[in-house]
Amino acid sequence: QQCHLWAQTHRRWTRQDWQKALFTDELRFCLTRGDGRICVYRRRTEHYTEACTLERDRFGGGESVIVWGGVSQHHRTELVVIAGNLNVVHYREDILLPHVVPFLQAHPDMTPKHDNATSHTAHSVCYFLQDRNVSVLPWPAKSPDLNPIEHVWDLLDRRVRARAIPPRNVQELAGALVEEWGNISQQELANLMQSMRCTAVLNAAGGHTRF
Q: How far is the C-alpha of 179 from the C-alpha of 174, rounded, in Å?
């Protein structure tokens, strides 16, 4: 219902409106990757029905690196490698203060978007943003298919795994992620930012989409 309401509210946003959104997220990249797929028997028309879809956390085990980044139609932030887990203090002091706030000062027409993770919605984070007159784009919970930065993470992952010499440890993985983030052209990012999924979400009545 939240996704459906969100799509109704934003369905008439123009490309110019979405150009003012800074989509941010963090993701854990694993040094090695298992398949993790599950076999589901279904009819041809049941791709995204609730009964044939499993929601799960992307965060896996093993040697891994957590990174944070932000992208928009015309801009991007630095890719930040996060030491340990991203808790409230890390998010406020290591992400918002040194990266998000300066970015918004340089681009005052932009509005950041982050999801509803606890580290993003804690009272201390909300007060921090309010004190700096930062408004955040409202976002429905558990809706990664609405966030175009997910396509950027996929592109970054494929670029790192396509390197001639793949990373052999977490230090090399972190370095490769930062390097490949910088190698992605702004045009590639712009192409991935152009498709917002309001119509698909409305057609699915707020349920799962092919994104």
A: 9
User: Smallest Cα–Cα separation from 24: which of 57, 74, 67?
Assistant: 67
pLDDT, tens digit, 9 for 90 and up, residues 89-110: 999 999 999 999 999 999 999 9
Give pTM, 2 decimals.
0.79
> Helix, strand, coil % (nearest 5) of the chain?
45, 10, 45
Total domains in the chain come to 1
3-state secondary structure of 139: coil
Q: Which domain holds residue 24?
A: 1-29+86-206
CATH code of the domain covering residue 4: 3.30.420.10
**Domain-embedded: residue 181:** yes
Q: Give which of 28, 90, 37 is closest to 63, Cα–Cα.
A: 28
